[in-house]
Amino acid sequence: MKIAFISDIHSNLIALEEVLSSIGKIRTICLGDLVGYNPFPNEVVEIIKERKITCIMGNHDYAVLTGDVAWFNPIAAKAILWTRKILKKENFEFLGKLKTSFIEDGIYCVHGSPLNPLEEYVFPDYPTTLLKEFLRIAKTKIIAIGHTHMPFVRYLEDGIIFNAGSVGQPRDGDPRACYAVFDTKNENVEIVRVEYNIDKVAKEIVKAGLPRELALRLYKGW
Q1: 4 has which bridge partners?
Q2: Number of structural domains found in the chain
Q3: Vertex 165, ends 93 and 143: CA angle to 5°?
Q4: Which single residue of 44, 103, 151, 189 could bond 165 by disulfide (Cβ 3.0 to 4.6 Å)?
Q5: What is the pLDDT of residues 162-204, one digit of tens each?
Q6: Are 12 and 91 in contact (CB under 8 A)?
């Protein structure tokens, strides 16, 4: 069986639609941050609900719920506060029901890390000793994470830790949307990239009055 993992959609409806088209009928899990940065928060949440995609909470989801932007840079904070103003009540309530981690089919799913589910950034070059500690804490052989917007797969003696990258705002120098597919039989992870219409999203960012920098960075994948 294969399971698709998406993460860090960040209100990028156009990228999400292309990614879901690429995924097809494969079961899908979302690793958090449905909202923030981009101009389609309601549409994104509604697609997740409509498709019954199992989802966890990300730090931007939490910030939209609480209004606490103290830990965010001014651009990210502005997008969060903008999202709070336009998010429908039922979509706000949906975000509020999300868990910060869960185990699905033996896979520990979390936005940040088992030590800090919402905030810890686990980058591709993270020390092996710490990754092994995550596996020990999670009590699983497989951990799926997001948050950094940088995809990676680390095969360890004790298991596998992988980052699904970002659907809505990649930060590894590749502007294409990103997701991961885990093959439960072979215990193999594939990172998949998908082209989408960045121009369309960029125009809507500017139209919504969000910071222009959020549009420009989509072209750079950073």
Answers
A1: 28, 181
A2: 1
A3: 80
A4: 151
A5: 999 999 999 999 999 999 999 999 999 999 999 999 999 999 9
A6: no
Give the CATH number for residue 174: 3.60.21.10
Q: Residue 171 is encoded by which pair of tokens?
A: 């930060």
| Alpha helical stretches, state H, 99-197 | 128-138
Q: Report pLDDT digits (tens) over 100-113.
A: 999 999 999 999 99
**Averaged pLDDT, 12-16:** 98
Q: What is d(CA 159, CA 134) in angstroms, rounded to the nearest whole number?
A: 10
Q: Show the beta-strand stretches assigned E in the chain.
A: 2-6, 27-30, 54-55, 101-104, 107-110, 142-145, 152-155, 160-163, 177-183, 188-194
Query: How many CB atoms neighbour CB 185 within 10 A?
Result: 7
Domain of residue 96: give its range.
2-220
Per-residue pLDDT tens over the stretch 206-219: 999 999 999 999 99
